[in-house]
């Protein structure tokens, strides 16, 4: 059986990908150490391309606050604007709070921008 292998950096990432697989009703995903094997037929049955699967993983992990915006962009192969637009389409809020705002203000002051 032909498969696509998604490498992960650690066991926790592998577990998160398996949780997402369940969310997508793709119970054919298999954990193999620090990777996930996805049978090609699962992708075809779900009408998912590899790019769409990467986007789904990145959106899910970002929504759960498990990855940063930058990591989500890298994982999905989107630029920051494209990733933010996709978050907006899905009504996933940005992870930006008062402390982030305060840090941005401090940075702008250091740069003499305000």
Helix and strand topology:
Blueprint: E1 3-7, H1 11-23, E2 30-32, E3 35-39, H2 40-45, H3 50-63, H4 69-76, H5 80-89, H6 98-110
Antiparallel strand pairs: 1-3, 2-3
Helix pairs in contact: 3-4, 4-5
Throw out a few tags for this protein.
single chain; 114 residues; mainly alpha; 3-stranded antiparallel sheet; 6 helices; elongated
Question: How does this model look, in words?
Answer:
The mean pLDDT is 79. The termini are far apart. The protein is mainly alpha-helical and 114 residues long. Helix 3 runs antiparallel to helix 4 and helix 4 crosses helix 5. It has one domain. Helix content is 56%, strand content 11%. The protein has a 3-stranded antiparallel sheet. The protein is elongated, with a radius of gyration of 17 Å.
In short:
The chain is mainly alpha-helical.
**Main pleated sheet:** 3 strands, antiparallel
How would you classify the helix and strand content by structural class? mainly alpha
User: Which stretches of 5+ consecutive residues score pLDDT under 50?
Assistant: none
Number of helices: 6
Number of domains: 1
Mean pLDDT: 79
Based on CA inertia axes, which overall geometry fits?
Answer: elongated
Instruction: Give the strand line-up of the largest sheet.
Output: 1-3-2
Task: Supply Rg.
Answer: 17 Å
Order of helices and strands: EHEEHHHHH
Distance between the termini: 59 Å
Helix content: 55-70%
Number of strands: 3
- What proportion of the residues form beta strands (DSSP E)? 5-15%
